[in-house]
Amino acid sequence: MKKVLVINANPKGQSFCKSIANNYALEAALAHEVKLLHISDMKFDISLDQGYDRASELEPDLLHFQKLVLWSEHIVIISPVWWGTLPAKFKGLIDRVFLPNFAFRYVESKAFPEKLLLGRSSELFITLDTPPFWYKYFKGNAIYKQLKTSILGFSGIKNRSTTYFGPVVGSRAETRQEWLGKVSKQAGKI
């Protein structure tokens, strides 16, 4: 039994990402301990105005998120692609929470920081309003690179898989049901 954190990174209250997150959480809960987080329900300032120069006080929702990340063994992120990458609120969540001495630690005389979230795995579900092959091969797959390498990998979280759904806009109900079936299968493979 694993501790699984499912994050719906879509800031909209109702979305296909929410359906994916709910579906994954229900299926995974059959064999694992699962916590589900919808960032649309979170209240926090997304801006890290002082960068890392000065510590900012974390709002209660951000402190709760930190606890969930530390609790988790497997993190599932469901995110739409907005303007080629992450929605601003989700990026703000990462900026505000994945701080030095939480996600990584600078080490004197070392070129690379120490990864503080080692031992965790992740899984990504990405929704698009363009065909996935177009986004991945012609647009550069920025969201994947940002999440897998610059955020998760930098912190020590190893991404196991990435699944793309799209185009979502104009998709038929039958297609979305097929996609949700794929989500259920993935949740059963943790």
TrEMBL record:
GO terms for molecular function: oxidoreductase activity. Its EC number is 1.-.-.-, 1.6.99.-. InterPro entries: Flavodoxin_fold, Flavoprotein-like_sf, NAD(P)H_dehydrogenase_qn. Keywords: Oxidoreductase. It holds the Pfam family Flavodoxin_2. Residues 2-183 form the Flavodoxin-like fold domain. It is an enzyme of class 1 (oxidoreductase). Belongs to the NAD(P)H dehydrogenase (quinone) family. This is NAD(P)H-dependent oxidoreductase.
